[in-house]
Amino acid sequence: MPHTELPTPSVNPAPPTDPVCGTCALNHASQLLSLGVDVSGHDHVVALAGNPNTGKSTVFNALTGLRQHVGNWPGKTVIGAEGGFGYRDRRYKLVDLPGTYSLLSTSEDEDVARDFLVFGRPDVTVVVVDATRLQRNLNLVLQILQITDRVVLALNLVDEARRHGLSVDERHLARELGVPVVPMAARSRQGVPDLLETVERVALGTIATRARPVHHGDVRTERAVSELAHRIQREYPELTNTRWIALRLLEGDPGIERAVTDGTLGRLAAPAASTESFTDRSGKTHS
Amino acid sequence: MTTTLDRLRNGQTATVTALDVDGAERRRLMDLGVLPGTPIRVDRVSPLGDPTAYLVRGSVIALRRHQARGIHITVGQG
């Protein structure tokens, strides 16, 4: 019998020693390079969305190494704060969006978050949800999934949920939503390595996400949406979320109506108009 | 017994049956999880009874009396 070597587990170059996980090869966190406010030359844009008080800014700080604005008052993050981080050999720009319960009501916070997701077209959107109030948080998750399915659900505060005797079946949740779910306790940096890894995979497209479209029970609404979506699609074949835009137009959403009439939608449809810059309602250019 | 939310007393629990509110306010209530079938409880009442804090799906929200009046509920086994 020929000499067979036992299969050696693929040994990655040992990452630098980390006080927590040491030299474990699975220690993805050691590949994290917090870049602070330096967002130059990024390869991917990642948006951070979520309800208020779910720990978005804590996640933001954990990734960028910044210590900005963690606090509990409405409108704290008005315009998305930006920071950078590197993971493996890629650089990411992270945009912290204001905490909202919805993207459909009318408040400046919600407009900022919504406009960035629709017009800024991030490569990946991390939705931070509170595991102890999952039901209420899922409203925003489903709304975001109608805009983009390149989403990672950061199931935060699982430590607190556990203290309340709650455990979330994250695999089932991921299956139901069609996007990856990463359990986290961002305050103690738990789950950060997994989040980085998952964000990278969604950015590179090695995890296929498939959001389940929401259908409306009402036949007439459904027909109107499909018909309008079909027409938008014909006009702008590059657009991916035509159903969502059709719904907003039917609701009389002023922001989306404006985007259609002033040509923003047309620019979006052109492949060149990627995520490099977008102009929000107040005319500030984010790049 | 069917009534509106503003009639609910401190500590009582009810179930939402309908929203008689329109536009952005309706959207907002629905975004906060106030939907038909949702259990809702009076959590705290301010000195003058307006606003009142309600417990909905694990979160506390404060509503004005006129807003609560637009939320139809059933109290008791319903």
TrEMBL record, chain A:
<dbReference type="InterPro" id="IPR050860">
    <property type="entry name" value="FeoB_GTPase"/>
</dbReference>
<dbReference type="InterPro" id="IPR041069">
    <property type="entry name" value="FeoB_Cyto"/>
</dbReference>
<dbReference type="InterPro" id="IPR006073">
    <property type="entry name" value="GTP-bd"/>
</dbReference>
<dbReference type="Pfam" id="PF02421">
    <property type="entry name" value="FeoB_N"/>
</dbReference>
<dbReference type="GO" id="GO:0005525">
    <property type="term" value="F:GTP binding"/>
</dbReference>
<protein>
    <submittedName>
        <fullName>Ferrous iron transport protein B</fullName>
    </submittedName>
</protein>
<dbReference type="GO" id="GO:0005886">
    <property type="term" value="C:plasma membrane"/>
</dbReference>
<feature type="domain" description="FeoB-type G">
    <location>
        <begin position="43"/>
        <end position="205"/>
    </location>
</feature>
<dbReference type="Pfam" id="PF17910">
    <property type="entry name" value="FeoB_Cyto"/>
</dbReference>
<dbReference type="InterPro" id="IPR027417">
    <property type="entry name" value="P-loop_NTPase"/>
</dbReference>
<dbReference type="InterPro" id="IPR030389">
    <property type="entry name" value="G_FEOB_dom"/>
</dbReference>
<dbReference type="GO" id="GO:0015093">
    <property type="term" value="F:ferrous iron transmembrane transporter activity"/>
</dbReference>
From TrEMBL, chain B:
<dbReference type="GO" id="GO:0046914">
    <property type="term" value="F:transition metal ion binding"/>
</dbReference>
<dbReference type="InterPro" id="IPR007167">
    <property type="entry name" value="Fe-transptr_FeoA-like"/>
</dbReference>
<dbReference type="Pfam" id="PF04023">
    <property type="entry name" value="FeoA"/>
</dbReference>
<dbReference type="InterPro" id="IPR038157">
    <property type="entry name" value="FeoA_core_dom"/>
</dbReference>
<feature type="domain" description="Ferrous iron transporter FeoA-like">
    <location>
        <begin position="3"/>
        <end position="75"/>
    </location>
</feature>
<dbReference type="InterPro" id="IPR008988">
    <property type="entry name" value="Transcriptional_repressor_C"/>
</dbReference>
<keyword id="KW-0408">Iron</keyword>
<protein>
    <submittedName>
        <fullName>Ferrous iron transport protein A</fullName>
    </submittedName>
</protein>
<dbReference type="InterPro" id="IPR052713">
    <property type="entry name" value="FeoA"/>
</dbReference>
